[in-house]
Design a protein that fits this description.
single chain; mainly alpha; two-stranded antiparallel sheet; globular
Length: about 140
């Protein structure tokens, strides 16, 4: 069974990567409305493209498995902010349940690493960086 445990993070990476990529692109497509919404939350308008970029780059990173732990941590912070600034007052069901599930999965990726079929920068014996496929 331990042989297959490296595939659990892969499933999380792919699904979460696609979700964040789509949500990031959506923020760019609905920029005016998102800026208005963020403004009501007291956030500056520049937050919209920054968060959208984080979600797009983070989503791609999770899908391919480069910097997965770092981007999972950054996206987890994004979910914490979303929960406390937007969703908490809506209650659990129909409120922050989705963001909480994403947060749990992202924290799991931070601890487990990217799993199978991740492209990672890893050191060779000469301590130069090479692009390689790992199954950690």
């Amino acid at each position: 069974m331990a042989l297959y445990s490296k595939f659990s993070p892969l499933a999380l990476r792919l699904v979460f990567g696609i979700l964040f990529l789509i949500h990031g692109i959506s923020k760019f497509q609905q920029m005016a409305g998102m800026e208005q919404f963020f403004g009501k939350l007291g956030l500056p308008h520049i937050a919209v493209p920054l968060i959208a970029l984080v979600e797009i780059i983070g989503g791609i990173s999770l899908i391919v498995g480069i910097g997965s732990r770092i981007f999972a941590a950054i996206l987890a912070l994004d979910m914490i902010v979303a929960i406390f600034m937007v969703k908490l007052g809506m209650g659990f069901v129909g409120g922050y349940e989705f963001e909480l599930a994403l947060l749990a999965g992202l924290v799991s990726l931070v601890f487990s690493g990217p799993g199978a079929f991740a492209l990672n920068l890893k050191s060779s014996s000469s301590s130069t960086q090479k692009l390689g496929v790992t199954a950690k």
